[in-house]
Specification:
Helices cover about 75% and strands about 0% of the residues. The protein is mainly α. The chain is globular and about 60 Å long. The protein starts with 6 loop residues before the first helix and ends with a helix.
Length: about 375
């Protein structure tokens, strides 16, 4: 076992990664079935319900990653009384997150410009392309999933302040209550008081509220509190985590019920910041941790740990697989078939994961080969000093 490594956190990361990809795979069929009566009549309400249940199940995925960001930062930095090295922290975090994000943003932004939008007008020149890339990089517009990395980078910038506060104020229940109250308040404001107004500036801001870290601070703070005190909390999760399955199932049903009764409830917005979804997520997290603890000695554990290790690369690359394969499911009339959609989901995981595993093994062999050559050269030099 890796030093200081928390197996169940890796399980949560792997499960959240799988569910993010489920969201992206089922988004188009679910949207089309909800808005096209001809399709709904052709495939039936049961097919629509399969997609809906799957979508509501995944509601915990994005908040879980925010929670994990706070959790892992607290576990690594907030428990120690050593001086916080901001420079080393920034270099490490931005190298492993920002550099891959910048490269993939360049790829997706270039693809969008030249293959989706038919290129930049010739008179605009290279500067327009650079400005477009800078815009996509700054707000996560290169592709539909990149906004989440922008949120993560924002948290990396503000996390040192929270870490210093967590070291000074160690009242874990107070942090948990603050995180819950903050997140519920944000959800209520978003659901009942915010909407497009027709003003171009506000509407642009409103459409991108989900990529503002302020919308997610509650989840981050809860993760921070749990991560800092997890050595004590873990035993409690191991003993009682399974009991969270009952309220989790009730809240899962509530999410589905809300979807069908949104108009009656007077919501303008339902989503990951709704109160029911916040509670759904917070009851699901200890349940997933409990599952990770219980299954940490099974054969599934190495698979989940490996998936967790490669989750960022899979997350960045999977839209390529979805974008290429999803239109090709049309020729067998299977785009809206739920089983075919799950096959697309499996391929969207397996192909980038397999590529990353192959690349990792190739790199490992090259490193071993280089090390062997170096050792042989040093040996020859020692044997023939003249």
């Amino acid at each position: 076992m890796r030093t200081g490594f928390i197996c169940e956190a890796a399980w949560l990361r792997a499960i959240a990664c799988l569910n993010v990809i489920v969201i992206h795979v089922i988004a188009k069929p679910l949207y089309d079935l909800n808005h096209d009566m001809n399709l709904l009549n052709l495939y039936g309400a049961f097919t629509q319900h399969q997609y809906l249940v799957s979508f509501e199940f995944t509601r915990f995925a994005v908040p879980s990653f925010i929670f994990l960001t706070g959790f892992t930062l607290a576990w690594k930095y907030a428990r120690s009384q050593d001086r916080f090295d901001f420079g080393s922290y920034i270099r490490h975090r931005f190298m492993i997150v920002f550099v891959p994000y910048a490269l993939w943003s360049l790829l997706y932004s270039t693809y969008s410009v030249f293959y989706v939008e038919s290129g930049i007008p010739a008179q605009a020149g290279l500067l327009a392309l650079v400005v477009r890339y800078g815009h996509d990089l700054l707000i996560g517009d290169a592709l539909y999933h990149m906004y989440f990395v922008v949120i993560t980078l924002q948290f990396y910038l503000i996390a040192p302040l929270f870490i210093l506060l967590a070291k000074r104020y160690v009242n874990t229940p107070a942090w948990l209550v603050f995180g819950l109250v903050y997140q519920v308040a944000v959800g209520l404001i978003y659901a009942y008081y915010l909407s497009p107004t027709g003003h171009p500036f506000w509407d642009a801001v409103y459409l991108r509220l989900d990529r503002n870290s302020l919308m997610w601070v509650g989840y981050f703070v809860i993760g921070l509190a749990v991560g800092r005190d997890y050595e004590r909390i873990r035993e409690w999760v191991r003993r009682f985590g399974g009991y969270f399955s009952i309220p989790w199932l009730l809240l899962f049903y509530t999410l589905i019920w809300e979807f069908y009764h949104a108009a009656d409830l007077g919501y303008y917005n339902l989503g990951v910041v709704s109160t029911s979804n916040i509670l759904y997520t917070l009851f699901f997290l200890p349940l997933i941790f409990w599952v990770g603890i219980k299954l940490s000695t099974t054969r599934a554990n190495p698979v989940m740990l490996n998936l967790s290790d490669h989750s960022y690369g899979i997350f960045l690359a999977h839209p390529i697989i979805i974008g290429y394969l999803q239109p090709r499911f049309l020729w067998v009339d299977n785009l809206y078939n739920f089983g075919a959609t799950m096959l697309l989901f499996a391929l969207s995981i397996a192909i980038p994961w397999g590529f990353l595993l192959g690349y990792g093994r190739l790199s490992s062999r090259r490193r071993r080969g280089t090390a062997s050559q170096t050792e042989a050269a040093e040996s020859r030099s020692f044997q023939n000093p003249g």
